[in-house]
Amino acid sequence: MISTDGAVLPRTLAAALAVRADDPVRTVVAGGTDLMVGVNAGRLRPSSWLSLRRVPELQRIERHGSSLFVGACVTFARIERELVDTAPALAAAARTVGSVQIRNAATIGGNLSTASPAGDSLPVLACYHAEVEVASVRGTRIVPIGEFLVGPKRTDLGADELVVGVHLRRTTGEQAFAKVGPRAAMVIARCSLAARVDRTTGDAGVGIGAVAPCALAVPAAAEILASGGSVDDFVAAVVSAAAPIDDLRAPAAYRHHALAVLARRMHGWLQ
Ligand SMILES: Cc1cc2nc3c(=O)[nH]c(=O)nc-3n(C[C@H](O)[C@H](O)[C@H](O)COP(=O)(O)OP(=O)(O)OC[C@H]3O[C@@H](n4cnc5c(N)ncnc54)[C@H](O)[C@@H]3O)c2cc1C
User: Fold this and answer.
1) Which of 5-9, 200-204, 215-219 has the highest mean pLDDT?
2) Residue/partner pairs of 262-265 with CB below 8 Å, 24 or more apart
3) Residues 76 and 198 in one domain
4) Which domain holds residue 209?
5) Residues 141 and 243 in one domain
6) Pocket of ligand 1 contains residue 119 by CB under 6 Å
7) Is pLDDT at 3 greater than 80 in this prediction?
8) Ligand 1 atom at minimum distance from 36 CA
9) Which of 20, 26, 34 to mutate to test the pocket of ligand 1 (most atoms within 8 A of CB)?
10) pLDDT per position as a tens digit, 28-65
11) Which of 143, 169, 195 represents a domain boundary (last residue)?
12) Residues 179 and 143 both lie in one domain
């Protein structure tokens, strides 16, 4: 374990979990792209850090049969490059995160732990029915994404726990991710939608982001996709799952409207 001024950089997951158990108020940092915004704005003044950047277990991407594991410290730049064939919708979402510089640092574990309703990986993870692996010195838990995200910027993570990674099933068939923002690049989503369907196996998933307190799976819309239901029914199912609020970035009515437009387009892309 390396120790510098106020920061520890463990070299194994076991060492990181031991530090977390010993000092749960130590600020956990991965890429720092969310945390440093708070530090630079003067909202955060961490006195000590637990950096996860040198923990090899958190950097793993593993494929076993139909399962895929993506470690918490895998950056969006790697997801964009390495998962384009295995998890195309996740790779598409990764491509829309910030700029190249942000994607080189920002991690999927940081996106999950920040749990912003607009986090771009989250509707995709909902559409894949992903499971989050969390660990502490007490052991490991596997938490369905819908139970891990408990509210805006709130997760099920305990004070002594770390996100280790996410487990996905490798899926076949068509899949896509899209988000709406005020520009074509470098945007925080006003709404986002991920969907996948394999009409041979009848397997489908739909996830929405930035239109509810947290990203959500929409099983009713997935069923319509799987059964070849109409575009109007699909749009209605997606929009009825949304519960957006008026905020600084967009009024609720705009988010509803934009989500309906995205749903209509996505239904066409997945045909
Ligand atoms: C200019 C800019 C543009 C951005 N654009 C986008 C965008 O388009 N889409 C998007 O979704 N996000 C965007 N973000 C937000 C940010 O980049 C992402 O949320 C990113 O995934 C955060 O990952 P990180 O590794 O940098 O997290 P960090 O900043 O290191 O950490 C974020 C939070 O997660 C906790 N944490 C990190 N890893 C773990 C772990 N393994 N276990 C437990 N807790 C952990 C930290 O303690 C902290 O509370 C942007 C940020 C900036 C500054």
Assistant:
1) 215-219
2) 262/178, 262/179, 262/180, 262/191, 262/192, 262/193, 263/193, 263/221, 263/234, 263/235, 263/238, 263/239, 264/231, 264/235, 265/178
3) no
4) 175-269
5) no
6) yes
7) no
8) 29
9) 34
10) 999 999 999 999 999 999 999 999 999 999 999 999 99
11) 169
12) no
Q: What are the tens digits of pLDDT across the range 215-257?
A: 999 999 999 999 999 999 999 999 999 999 988 889 999 999 9
* CB distance 163 to ligand 1 below 6 Å: yes
Question: Looking at residue 187, what is its pLDDT?
Answer: 85
Give residue 116 CA to ligand 1 midpoint distance, Å.
9
Q: Do 184 and 86 belong to one domain?
A: no
Structure tokens belonging to residue 248: 């600084």
User: Are 113 and 229 members of one domain?
Assistant: no
Which of 118, 149, 169 finishes a domain? Answer: 169
With a CB cutoff of 8 Å and minimum separation 6, the contacts of 248 are: none
Q: What's the CATH code of the domain at 96? A: 3.30.465.10
Predicted local confidence at residue 54, as pLDDT:
96
pTM of the model: 0.97
| 133 and 230 belong to one structural domain | no
Do 240 and 162 lie in a common domain? no
CA dihedral 99, 103, 104, 107 (to 10 degrees): 150
Q: How far is the CA of 238 from the centre of ligand 1 (A)?
A: 27
CA 106 to ligand 1 center in whole angstroms:
6
Please count the structural domains in the chain: 2
Q: Which atom of ligand 1 is nearest to the CA of 134?
A: 42
Q: E strand or H helix at 92, and its extent?
A: helix 88-95
